[in-house]
Amino acid sequence: MIPADDAVALLKSGKATRNALLAYGNGRSYGDSCQNGAGMIVDMRPLNRIRAFNAETGVIEAEAGVLLCDIIAHAAPYGFFPAVVPGTQFVTLGGAIANDVHGKNHHRRGTFGCHVESFMLLRSDGQAHYCSATENERQFAATIGGMGLTGLILSASIRLMRVPSLDIVEKVTPFRGLGEFFELAEAADQ
User: Fold this and answer.
1) Where are the domains of the chain?
2) How do residues 94-153 score in pLDDT, each as one tens digit?
3) Which residues contact 48 (CB under 8 A, 6 or more apart)?
4) I want to staple 119 with a disulfide (CB 3.0 to 4.6 A). Which of 57, 138, 156, 168 is the partner?
5) What φ, ψ does residue 185 adopt, rounded to 5°?
6) 27-81 confidence digits (pLDDT tens)
7) 136 Cβ partners below 8 Å, 6+ apart?
């Protein structure tokens, strides 16, 4: 495993061979997704700064190695929270994008990628590309859920959702059988 800064220098100098580098976030993906028998694994965790946060819109810009728990700690006091959080808050921003993670609210909020505004992608040619739904659209679409195969995500901007509180209200509703469960589930989504 090599540090992200070393990988960036290798790519920009042209000394990294094609397909030689694969980003590694915080190792919370299922199925050992960060395997690279053909090259090196790049530790993205040192790229862990939050660069900007707009407390009016909830858009946050951060480096790819920032953990979701750090985004939550930064934005929650302003009433914002990631719209999609997987089973752990200890995934990196870059990993959440590369795996296009989903949460328990998938049927209402979609995947993590639905809330990505833009990102900087370092390609194997050593060039960094700004990608969004309107600029470098094909790289943008291929990178969200692309398992890191399109390049190294260096930083990203995502839209957080406004929340009234971090408290969770639990309501227990007993039911008798699947039919009643599905009726209750449908009514709960209204």
Assistant:
1) 48-188
2) 999 999 999 888 778 899 999 999 999 999 888 899 999 999 999 999 999 999 889 999
3) 63, 65, 66, 67, 70
4) 156
5) -65, -40
6) 777 767 777 777 788 889 999 999 999 999 999 999 999 999 999 999 999 999 9
7) 121, 129, 130
Multiple choice CATH, 48-188, 3.40.50.720, 3.40.228.10, 3.30.565.10, 3.30.465.10: 3.30.465.10
Phi, psi torsion values for 43, nearest 5 degrees: -80, 110
Please tell me whether residue 41 adopts helix, strand or coil conformation.
Answer: strand
Q: 């370092």: which residue's tokens?
A: 122
CA distance 7 to 152: 9
> Could you give the CA distance from residue 64 to residue 44 in angstroms, rounded to a whole number?
7
- Is the separation of the CB atoms in 41 and 152 below 8 Å? no
Angstrom distance (rounded) from CA 55 to CA 160? 10
